[in-house]
Amino acid sequence: MSNIAPNLRYLRRKKGLTQQKFADLIGIKRSLVGAYEEYRAEPKYDLLKKMATFFNLSMDELAQDLIDDEWKPKTVRDSSSLRILSITVDKKNKENIELVPQKASAGYLNGYADPEFVKELPRFSLPLFKDGTFRAFELKGDSMLPLDTGTIIIAEYVEHWNDIKVGKTYVVVSKSEGIVYKRLGNKANNEKGLKIYSDNKSYPPYWIELDDILEIWQAKAYLSTDFPEAQNGPTIDDISNMMLDMQKKLSDLKKR
User: Residue ranges of the HTH cro/C1-type domain (predicted)?
Assistant: First the structure.
């Protein structure tokens, strides 16, 4: 049995809230708060997540820990903290690469930590990516030309945001911006957040606050069905003729 009931009761009272006031703040009926606090029901995933956010806790802490005056969080919540990620594995217990297509990007903001949502995403594997946790994201827009809409970025999960490498490209998942593929101009800064750059210079750089960021993935490869156009440069014959011409001119100069 989980510890949701005593934890809700303790945390609500610690904030000086009645069941009705807490219900109003969360957006549910007061009778549900009573049911949750008396072991008669348990909140579903979305509501549990909302309650955990309200009390500045993880869902695991709210459901599993027994929170009282002596309780302390197991990890410090800052930019270097380890983050928990939902993944899927194949029949050999090896991690898949889940694909987040454009049409699923909005739902990903709510379901990125939900194992059931992640399980429904398309998934595949590539021999090149064996060690680490990888996810694929379909690009939208032209802010990172020459990579255009429809390009798929394969990226590796960044557990510690202080490991960010300045000037490299990342997929950043945030509450305000959604899923964006950008170049990062600085390491995680608790005061300012992250500075985001587009390779297409018509898009100005901007800042994302750390509290707004949900996930960060470092780009490792990309897949595209658009092949590069042939370049209209000199052919091998052209280069050979140029070399012969230069040799002739050098020979003429020596004779003079």
Answer: 8-62
Compute the distance between CA of residue 190 and CA of residue 79 in angstroms, rounded to an integer.
Answer: 7
Q: Return the amino acid letter for 124.
A: F
Nearest in space to 186 (alpha carbons), one of 158, 173, 205:
205
- Each residue's pLDDT tens digit in the chain (256 positions)? 689 999 999 999 998 999 999 999 989 999 999 999 999 998 888 888 888 888 878 887 888 889 998 887 654 444 444 456 788 888 887 889 999 999 999 899 888 878 888 989 999 999 888 778 899 999 999 999 889 899 999 999 988 788 889 999 999 999 889 999 999 987 766 667 889 999 999 999 999 988 888 899 999 999 998 877 766 666 667 777 777 777 777 777 777 6
Q: Is the pTM of this model over 0.85?
A: no
Please tell me the distance from the alpha carbon of residue 207 to that of residue 195, in angstroms, as a whole number.
4
* DSSP code of residue 231: P
Q: Which amino acid is at 215?
A: E
As a whole number of angstroms, the distance between CA 170 and CA 99 comes to: 16
